[in-house]
Amino acid sequence: MPSTKVKVPTPLRAFAGGRAEVEVEGRTVGEAVQALVRAHPGLGRHLLTPEGNLRSFVSVFVNERDIRALARDATELKPGDVVSIVPAIAGGAPSSPGASLPMARADRPKAGAFTGEELRRYSRHLLLPEVGVAGQKRLAAAKVLVVGTGGLGAPTALYLAAAGVGEIGLVDFDRVELSNLQRQVLFATADVGRPKLDAARARLQGLNPGVRVVAHEERLEAANALETLRPYDVVVDGTDNFPTRYLVNDASVLLGKPNVYGSIYRFEGQVSVFDAKRGPCYRCLYPEPPPPDLVPSCAEAGVLGVLPGVVGVLQATETVKLLLGIGEPLIGRLVLYDALGMTFRELTLEKNPTCVLCSAHATQKGLIDYPAFCGVPAASSAPARGVPEITPEELRGELASSDPPLLVDVREPEERAISLLEGSLPIPKGELPERVDELTRARSIVVYCRSGGRSADAVRTLLDLGFTHVRNLKGGINAWAERIDPSLPTY
Ligand SMILES: [Zn+2]
């Protein structure tokens, strides 16, 4: 039987003994995946449905081809074939979607002759025959919406402003945090605490006063997305969560606009251009999102600071190419960037002939309820409703009693190196379902994480599994550090 290399993506390597590549035997993709799951049973629930079929949010490629364009599970494998598993990645700029702050929108710049100062500013563009005065005028007349001003949106917006894109819309409603500065190069230390869009506008207009910056300081939602996206020529997806990604995709398809997609996870990025008029959309690649508990966010998983710089600059490059109409756009292709291996791989994406949104048989004609579609609470990071909680003060009392609860730390090992509660049992959230046996003897359990979100999910998991005396530490270890033990650092 032929043996095949299966490339395991970073988010799933923990379930494959940390390996990036596993050699398995199988005559078809289906057999190879079954063999992979037999060798690494922890991968099972990530890749297969309970019926044993490939999950819809997992894409599988043989060499450079999507198996959905081949014979799916029955796709035959030849010796030397490489099977790649490409999961949906939410991570992007840890920032947020927003919507319209109504602003006077001036007319597009007059396409008259450039001033002497503009000629100097754009001289390196004007020297390129592919850009020239005509191309620079196209950029000046263009409108681009950047959704999210985090790790991806920051470099994208900077380069678009530097390039002279006439109008840049920004969607975000967060304030600048100190932890943003490791990668969100739009912001300076003095901006911490300031609304991101105020700081971003000042920075972009400082870079290029000729660019108009339109702030949409609200959460992008089904109710306002079409109206927000409509005025723009190109949409750049710099989001970090699935509900907004699907919303941006769907609104772009419905409005017929190209969507320049980027996502990041730890050391890896994905980039593509989804333009349903000319190729597949995000739903063609991932018809459904993964369940929220299978995918850690950027805040949980960490990300190399320069990674969104690379991915965001690729997004800016594709945006400028689309506006100028030059080169080969990244339509129907997915670039995978691995910073540790310093490799770029390219996979071919096919339009899904049964895509609910962009195919001839589309059934979805409008926007939907995205938080419900993605199985997440409506307000992201909202405290979990219905999960029993304990305050840090109450926990201090119980820990000093004769019958203290078992403390379970669902954070990652890197986070325990920053701070931990003495005596706590480390079980990273992703490992919880496989390790519940370790908890069955505890009479009472208190689960904690950094700030209470992941641990609330873990409490819900344990309650679903039949545990009764389980509570969530409200505010996580950061709240404990602030209110009980100031010697612990917060992060
Ligand atoms: Zn589609």
Can you walk me through this structure?
The strands form 3 sheets. This protein has an 8-stranded mixed β-sheet with strand order 8-7-6-9-10-11-12-13, sandwiched between helices. A 5-stranded mixed β-sheet has the order 2-1-5-3-4, covered by helices on one side. It has a 5-stranded parallel β-sheet with strand order 14-18-17-15-16. The longest helix is centred in the middle third of the chain and has 18 residues, at 307-324. It is globular. The protein has 19 helices and 18 strands. Helix 7 (153-163) links the parallel strand 6 and strand 7 (167-171). The chain folds into 3 domains: 3-87, Ubiquitin-like (UB roll) (Roll); 116-374, NAD(P)-binding Rossmann-like Domain (Rossmann fold, 3-Layer(aba) Sandwich), CATH 3.40.50.720; 389-483, Rhodanese-like domain (Oxidized Rhodanese, domain 1, 3-Layer(aba) Sandwich), CATH 3.40.250. Residues 93-111 and 379-384 have low confidence and may be disordered. It has 491 residues and is an alpha/beta fold. Residues 276, 280-281, 283-284, 352, 355, 357-358 line the site of zinc ion (ZN). Zinc ion (ZN) binds next to helix 11.
